Amino acid sequence: MPSWTRALAAPFRRLALAARRAITSVPWVAGGPSSTQVSTERALSLIPVFACVRIISESVATLPLQLFRRDGSSREPLNYVPQLFWAPDAQGDLVTWLSKCLTSMLLRGNAYGLITQRDPLGFPTMVEWLDPDDVWVDETNPVRPVYYWRGRVVPREDLVHIPWVVLPGHVVGLSPVSAFAQTIGAGLVTTQYGLSWFANGGTPPAVLKNTGKTVTPDESEEISGRLAASIRSRRPLVLGSDWDFTALSVSPEESQFIESLRLNATQIAAIYGVPPTKVGGDSGASMTYSNVEAEANDLASMTLRPWLVRLENQFSRLMPGREYVRFNVDAMIRTSIIDRYTAHGMALGQGWKNRDEIRTTENLSPLPPGAGGEVYGPLPTPAVPAGE
Q1: Per-residue model confidence as pLDDT tens digits over 142-156
Q2: 341 lies in which domain range?
Q3: Is residue 43 within 8 Å of 268, Cβ to Cβ?
Q4: Are residues 147 and 29 in the same domain?
Q5: Which of 93, 143, 265, 297 is 20 to 30 A from 249 (CA-CA)?
Q6: What is the pLDDT, as a whole number, of residue 361?
Q7: Looking at the domain assignment, is residue 293 inside a domain?
Q8: CA gap 212, 232 in Å, rounded
Q9: Given CA atoms 36, 37, 41, 44 in this order, what sign does their dihedral have?
Q10: CA-CA distance, 193 to 52, in Å (whole number)?
Q11: What backbone phi and psi angles, to 5 degrees, belong to 268?
């Protein structure tokens, strides 16, 4: 077995050798007893839930991560990326790694990561996110909770736990799928009812009425079959006298399907703090943005910020010494070239960015030594020799 494979499997082997739970101590059901019939997979099949999870997880996972070091009251940006953030797990894909963490938090309220590799100083370099259904937490003593993975005790120092909303006296975050099972279930039922309605034909497509005679059930069935066959073949149907044919039309709005789905989408958007109009809901007002930048700022501050702060705090705990991480939210705000260059000019003129920092933002290489790339503020005017 290659050395890297042995290193990756070592934490799992340690768990296999750990003491097993007594059958009378804690539930053996993976993840604890289920409090709802709405599973994670069923919840994701509801479009507003999937949309909320996709918007938050993809928006956060695609933001650049930056490393800093605290130096008293100031901070120093570092020009290297720790292994944890360029090869975080066996797959080695940071975006997928972050998406797994966020999806677990968004659906189950908790992300559990097993530390599978450390550097020589003991700091984590690889973390594998576990299925929350396989994790159970004994919260009898919330100061010293005991974590179990598939029935085995996991040492606290080998586990990364990031909860969402936590009640006092607990360490496990609330699961949105469980806490709002009725809201999500209502959306699933409405969707299923709508599918059944239209699959079964909904209301009759037309009424064929004879005012001259009473039609027996057998005759009605025969006439209905002939009419249906004629409609399918797109051929005219010729009958005797005294027949009145009236086509029926019932709009989806009249059947309340769209209104019910819109209301459910608005409720689910409120759970996740996502603008309702992005997931098929109703904002309740004619909210408009002056430009794309304003909309991105609103999404970053109102929706993404709580998730970013939770991840930043937890990831910073995994860094050595005074190092910490921050997401670069500015990367999601796309401005026009004129606005961007104007902002660069203000930053340079006011002296809080130098030319090399601005060039880095624009993905340009630093200026050659001596060209003034490290100078803050306007470049000094060259002295003019006397007499010229």
Answers
A1: 899 999 999 999 999
A2: 335-378
A3: no
A4: yes
A5: 265
A6: 74
A7: no
A8: 27
A9: negative
A10: 23
A11: -65, -40
How many helices and strands in the chain, by DSSP H and E?
12, 11
Kindly report the number of other CB atoms within 10 A of residue 276's CB atom.
Answer: 20
**Partner residues linked to 355 by β-bridges:** none
Is 302 among the domain residues?
Answer: no
Q: Note whether 101 and 239 are same-domain residues.
A: no
Number of domains within the chain? 3
Buried residues in 239-272 as b, exposed as e (16+ CB within 10 A): eeeeeeeeeeeeeeeebebeebbebbbbbbbebb
Q: Are 32 and 105 contained in the same domain?
A: yes
Residue 271, in any domain of the structure: no
Q: Which helix (H) or strand (E) holds 48?
A: helix 47-61
- Please answer whether residues 269 and 275 qualify as being in contact, where contact means their C-beta atoms are separated by less than 8 angstroms: yes
Same domain for 208 and 97? no
Based on the domain organization, do 239 and 368 belong to the same domain? no
CB neighbour list of residue 202: distance below 8 Å, 6 or more residues apart: 250, 255
Quote the strand ranges of 7-123, DSSP E: 65-71, 74-77, 110-118
176 close to 38: Cβ distance less than 8 angstroms: no
pLDDT number for residue 261: 73
Confidence (pLDDT) at 264: 82
pLDDT for the residue 27: 42
Q: Within this chain, do residues 233 and 358 fall inside the same structural domain, yes or no?
A: no
Asked whether residue 294 is assigned to any structural domain, the reply reads no
Q: Are strands 124-130 and 110-118 parallel, antiparallel or unpaired?
A: antiparallel
Residue 170 belongs to a domain with what CATH number?
3.40.140
Identify whether residues 147 and 89 lie together within a single domain.
Answer: yes
Distance CA 148, CA 129 (A): 14
Nearest-angstrom CA–CA distance, 254 and 256: 5
Q: What percent of the chain has pLDDT over 90?
A: 29
Residues 195 and 161 in one domain: no
